[in-house]
Hints:
By secondary structure, this protein is an alpha/beta fold. It has helices spanning about 15-25, 80-95, 130-135, 145-155, 165-175, 185-195, 220-230, 280-290, 310-315, 335, 350-360, 385-400, and strands spanning about 5-10, 35-40, 45-50, 65-70, 100-105, 160, 180-185, 210-215, 235-245, 250-255, 270-275, 295-305, 320-325, 345-350, 375. It folds into 2 domains: about 5-185, Rossmann fold, CATH 3.40.50.2020; about 185-350 and about 370-400, Rossmann fold (3-Layer(aba) Sandwich), CATH 3.40.50.2020. Helices cover about 30% and strands about 20% of the residues.
Amino acid sequence: MTGSKYLVVGNSSDDPFAIDVAFAMGQRxxxxxLISMKRFxxxxxxxxxxxxxxxxxxxxxxxxxxxxxxxxxxxxxxxxQSLTMRTLMIARAAKENGASEVILVEPDLYxxxxxxxxxxxxxxxxxxxxxxxxxxxxxxxFTAKLYAQLLKLAGVDRVLTVHNHSHSVQQMFTDxxxxxxxxxxxxxxxxxxxxxxxxxxYGKDGAGLALCAPDKGARDFVQxxxxxxxxxxxxxxxxxxxxxxxRKVEITVHAESEWRLEDIQGHDIVLFDDMVRTGSTVVQSCxxxxxxxxxxxxxxxxxxxxxxxxxxxxxxxxxxxILTLNTIPTVLNRDIQGRLRKKMxxxxxxxxxxxxxxAILDLPQISTNDSLYAIDMSSKNLRWKHKIxxxxxxxxxxxx
Length: 400
């Protein structure tokens, strides 16, 4: 690895995401050879960093001078509550065996949806909370804050996550971890793929391409995407949504939008968001966009934890293709994708995460070889036949 100081482990011994991050950072020891995930007969979990059973020197200090990186991702087999407890106990085991630092890498930061409580002092928002917003959290805890405090208490010193949507969570984790909280945004991954694949078609300088934000909360992200793409003729459309019920939203073009719908007729459109749950908003947004006969509508998002209801909704023909990341690795499961596999592309980010982690920890940069990411695309996807061509193009562009 980058020397023997850093140890990468997962919160389950066979987590392929953690294994790939470790490998990308140069760790050649198998994750399962570094830590044992013991389970007692009474079902209690007990992690154990593996040491020589015959070595009685430095008992309780085998990790002295080491930094332990815990990679935590969602699983089909283990609940988030169980994974959380496992992370806490692994962190405590590391510290009680001499580790100088514990770093949590959790691409989809748990409990971020529970990002405020029923009083104005429970959560720092970017908007003024009215009584309806307060009522949504009436009777429940400010769980994201509890989670941050538990991680700190267990021994976690630094947290890295990907594209966290909550201003409240970002501020609170920054405070709890005294600035050692890193919310990395995957601009470079999206830019690379949009520029170097055939997921959308456009002319010189982005003519015929439109980027769309579903609401004001996504505006800054999409505007920064537009800037980094450096396609001056690409257009930006801001939508507005008003919730009229638990599963109902009304979608319109926002009054502050730079361009109107009639201005992007015939364009290929990429609608960006950080996550999807029920799919109601994105489907309605794409239905609105379809009214002006676009070339293609692509939904690009970072965290795909759609419910079964959401997956059914997103099979709607208003969405031509879905581009997402594997921050929640279950998205790679073809059964989870269901009918969406015909129009879903998943960009695997383990190497990109490892690069960012090395930069944050001031470690020697690792080679990216041919790409920041790996592409997972079902043969059911209509662009499958171009996959080999895409791979060759990426290699050529990255070696220039």
